[in-house]
Specification:
It is a single chain. By secondary structure, the protein is an alpha+beta fold. It has 4 domains: 3-71, Arc Repressor Mutant, subunit A (Orthogonal Bundle); 80-130, no CATH class; 149-236; 250-322, Alpha-Beta Plaits (2-Layer Sandwich), CATH 3.30.70. It has 11 helices and 13 strands. It has helices at residues 3-18, 25-32, 36-49, 80-95, 99-113, 118-133, 149-160, 232-236, 258-265, 292-299, 312-322; strands at 23-24, 53-57, 63-67, 135-137, 163-169, 178-189, 194-199, 206-210, 214-223, 250-256, 274-277, 283-289, 306-310. Strand 5 and strand 6 form a beta hairpin. Helix 1 packs across helix 5.
């Protein structure tokens, strides 16, 4: 067996041990950039070489291979928080368009996770999943407000259990702060930080609570049942930055002048964006989201090189921001 093939088989063992589902034919083809025939040959060699290989078929009749308790890769080299931090770094790199970096980090993660014993790996993965659940990210890196480490730790503990949290909060229309008992579901990170939670009474809709308007936060021992359908990625994608508004949510269309088109093409303005090169050399950017003010704050950096086609309200807000007529602070 050549050194390259040995390295490939060892990598397959790491992936099969580290990933919950294991590895599939399609995954091997993509990972090693090989044709189906070669991938099948690699999997047969993988089955011959490693004991304890298990196979199963999913609902789409795809075959998966998993590998458990391989002695020479069962060493604890990574702590739970370190794994969680690595998963967050992979997510950030992917969001920022650094695909090569995300791939390299994912390979390193699989190699490290493969060294766990099964019980340790289960606990670490659960910890990491909860941390990812608790953090949504804005569509791009940007300046953010400082946030209380105490609040973040308290919320993370509450998300792990999960338990209710009591906050002293002053909304935009509240003359004074008042207490609220809420079910925390996520933290959205952006220009501002938001706690996404449901109140224990009322319409049970998700609300955004700005961290800078939370004056006190206290943990409770009261458990609640987390909504299994809540998806922090889907929720945060409704916003351009970190603020979501039902009244502003809708199609957005920007046109970048030919002089700025090449630079704009390198940006990920929103995870759901569509880019279209126009005949005159300009670039059309389209996506669906809310948060007009955060959009205007970003677009003003492009000067006159960008034009808002839709919505009209965003176009008018951008002009007011350019004239310095918007007095809302970040």
């Amino acid at each position: 067996m050549s050194f390259i093939k040995a390295e490939q088989l060892y990598r397959m063992a790491e992936m099969a041990n580290a990933r919950r589902q294991g590895i599939s034919l399609r995954l091997i083809m993509e990972e090693f950039e090989v044709e189906e025939r070669t991938a099948r040959r690699m999997l047969r060699k993988f089955e011959d070489l490693f004991g304890g290989v298990e196979t199963w078929d999913d609902r789409d009749r795809r075959r998966w291979w998993s590998l458990h308790d391989v002695p020479y890769i069962q060493h604890r080299v990574l702590r739970e928080k370190e794994l969680a931090a690595l998963d967050l770094a992979i997510r950030r790199a992917g969001r920022d368009g650094a695909q090569d970096e995300a791939k390299a980090l994912e390979t390193a993660r699989d190699r490290l996770v493969a060294s766990y014993s099964r019980p340790m790996m289960h606990g670490a993965k659960k910890y990491s999943e909860l941390l990812l659940l608790a953090n949504g990210f804005a569509s791009r890196p940007e300046p953010t407000r400082k946030v209380s480490e105490e609040y973040l730790n308290l919320l993370f503990t509450s998300l792990r259990r999960p338990t209710l949290v009591e906050i002293l909060y002053q909304g935009a229309r509240d003359p004074e702060p008042r207490k609220r008992l809420v079910e925390p579901h996520a933290v959205i990170v952006g220009t501002r930080h938001y706690l996404i939670a449901r109140k224990t009474d009322g319409d049970r809709e998700y609300r955004q609570f700005r961290f800078d308007r939370i004056f006190e936060m206290h943990a409770t021992v009261q458990p609640f049942e987390r909504d299994p359908d809540f998806d922090v990625e889907r929720y945060s994608a409704q916003a351009f930055g970190s603020f979501f508004s039902d009244t502003e949510y809708g199609p957005v269309r920007w046109r970048f002048a030919p002089s700025a088109a090449a630079a704009a093409r390198e940006f990920i303005f929103h995870p759901g964006q569509e880019l279209t090169d126009l005949e005159d050399g300009s670039l059309l950017v389209e996506f669906t989201a809310s948060g007009w003010l955060e959009m205007a704050w970003h677009l003003v950096k492009w000067g006159k090189a960008v034009e808002v086609l839709d919505p009209l309200e965003l176009r008018e807000m951008l002009e007011r921001v350019r004239r310095g007529e918007v007095d809302i602070l970040p």
